Amino acid sequence: MKKFGFFALLAAGLLLGACSSEIKDDNTIHGGDYTDGAYIGITLQLPTAAPATRANEDFEDGEEDEFAVKNATLYLFQGASEAAATYLAQYAIGTDFTKDQFDDTETDNVPNVTSTYCEATLITNEVANQIKSTPDGVNVYAYVIVNNNGLLPALDETETFANFSKREFAAFGADIAAKKNIGEGGLLMTSSPICDEPGGLNAPTDEAKYQTLIVVDKDKIFPTAEEAKEAPAACIYVERAAAKVTVTSTTTTTTLSGTTTPIAIDFQGWQIINYEPKFYNTRQIESAWGKLASTATMPDPDFPYWIAANKYRFVSGTAFDPHIPGYAGSYASHTTGYRTYFAKDLHYDVDATLSKPVAALDGPWMESGDHGYTTENTFDVARMTHDNTTQVTLKYQFGDGTSFYTLNGGNVMYDETNIKNLLVTNITNVSEVYNALTAAVEEVSAADPGHTYVGNIVVDFTEPSASENSVEYTATFKIASSTGTLDENNATTTKAALNAALANAVASFSISFHKGGVAYYNVRIKHFGDYETPWSSTKPFMTLNSGETVADIYGIGADPDNSAANFLGRYGVVRDNWYKLVVSGVKHIGTAEPIDVSKETLIPDDEIDNYISIHVHILPWVIRNQIVDL
After folding, report:
1. Is the entire prediction scored with pTM above 0.90?
2. Most CB contacts within 10 A, which of 65, 291, 375, 453?
3. Dihedrals φ, ψ of 437, to 5°?
4. How many of the other CB atoms lie within 10 Å of CB of 97?
5. What is the DSSP string of 332-373?
C-alpha cells in the first residue's frame, strides 16, 4: 500500500509574548545567552507501531489530502502539571511542506509518514530563558493545532489548559456530505491524549498517566539549529478532529425474508445524520476508563470475534515509536505513548439535540465507496438510544423502480389494486368489524324485509404529496340491497359501533407507499461494537437479557457496576477513527420515508534565542469495521 509522507520545512517562527493575545512578527534578537538567533522545528509523522492487540483495530493512511498541512501553531503552557498549566506563548509555524511518497515494502520498519528533514524555527531568548530557568517541579508543555480553519484561539496568561482544551469548534457541522468537503483549509488536527502505559490484554495500573500536553525538555535548548535537530526537545502526536465514514454496498439482488423469488435491488446512496454540531478543541478522556473491560465469557463458537471481549479496550496495547529515520538524535526524553480510544463530547452525559436528525430526500446522496466526515459524538450507557447516536441513512430501489405498497412492514410488494383488496379482506375479518357489520346489515334488513342486504368494506387512499412517500387510507362501509339501493344510513343504532370498529381496525393495519420502489434504512454507527462490547439476548453466557428500556438492555439497573465495563463506547463516533460500513445483505424492505431519529428517544441502540525541535505525529485513521445486514 502506498504511504504518504510529508517533510516539514519550517520558516522562521512568529512570537506571541506571554502577556499578549496577538501573534507578532518578531524574530529579532533580544539579548541573553544566545546571540545568533533561535528556531523551533516541527515534523509530521504517523506512528510506526503495527497494532497486534485488538480485534477491531486496523490502521490505514487514507487519502493524500487528509494529511495536508496548511498551517500549524504551537502553544506553550507552564505549570506543575497538565491540569495546573497556564498559557505561556504561541508560535505560528512555517508551512513550506513537501511530500515524500514511498512503498513500505522497500524498507523494513519504516513509519507510515516519514520525515528525513527538519528545519528549526526562530524563538526569542525571553521565552527560551524562561524555559531554561524553570524550577524543579514546574514544566513547560507543548500543544499543536494544525489546519486551524480560522478557528485559532487567542489566549492570555490567565488561560488554563483545562479551559483551552474545551474550546468549542464547529469545523464540520455545516456540510459533511462528501469527501471534497475537506476544503482548502485541510482537516483540523490537534494534540492527542495518550497514556504512558499499555492497555489491550492488561489494564493500565493506578500510576498510569493520561495527558495531552508533552513536556518540553528544558535541557535541549540550543544556540544552533543543527544541535536542535540532533536532539529535539519534544515529540508531539496530533490527531484529526474529524471522524471519517465510508459505506460500501455491492448487493444487486436479494431474497427477502419470507419470500422465495430473488428481487433486483439498486443502492442509490447514503447520508450521515444525527451528528454533533460542535466539538471540543481537544479530545476529552477519563483515566478510569483504562480499567474497564467486558465481563462476557469468551470465546463463543458462533461469534469468534468476541474473543476480544476481555481486553482493556480504552488504551492500546502497542506503543508509538517516536524514532524518525535519518535523525541521529536521541528521543530518550520522550515518554512512550499509547493510543486512547474514546472521548467525552459536549453532551456526553446529557440528552443532546443533534444536527440533521433525518436524511433529506433530495440528498446529496453519496455513492457506494464514498466517504464523508463528521464530528465526534459519544454518550454514556444510559443515553445509548437512537436519538443520541450518529447514524447513516441508506437508500435502495427495489425492482425496476415501480412504486409499491407494503402492509405492516412486511416484505410483500403490492400494487394499489391488490393492497386495497388485501385491506378489505383483512379488515372484514377483524371480529369486531365483522360482528358490527353483521349487526348493521341485520338492522337494515329488519326494517325492509322485502329486500336482501349485503354489507361491504370500502378502502380509499389519499394521494401522497410530491415531497412525501407516505399514504393514508380510510375504511368505510356500504350496505346495498338486491336492487342496488344503499341503505347504510338506516342502521341508526349500529352505525356508531361499526364506525368505531373500523377506526380501530384501520389503526392496526399500517400501509407504506414506496414511491419509485425506494426504501430507506438507518444504521447506527458502532465504535467498539461487537468486538469489544458484545451484546446478545440469546447467548447463555450473557447475564443480561433484552428488554424494552436502555436500563433493561444494558443492565444499568440490574448490574450497574458492570454496565459501563460491558457496554460503554459500544456505539458512538470518535475523532480520527474511520468507520467502514459494509452492507452484506438486505433481508427486509425498509421504511417508505427517512426516519426522524429525534423522535426515537426511548429506543436503545444495542524563548530565548535557542532551538527547540517539536516533533508532531499525525495519527493514522483507526479503522472501525462494521458489517451491516439489513
Report:
1. no
2. 375
3. -65, -40
4. 17
5. TTSPP-EEE-----TTTTS----B--S--TT-PPBPTT-EEE
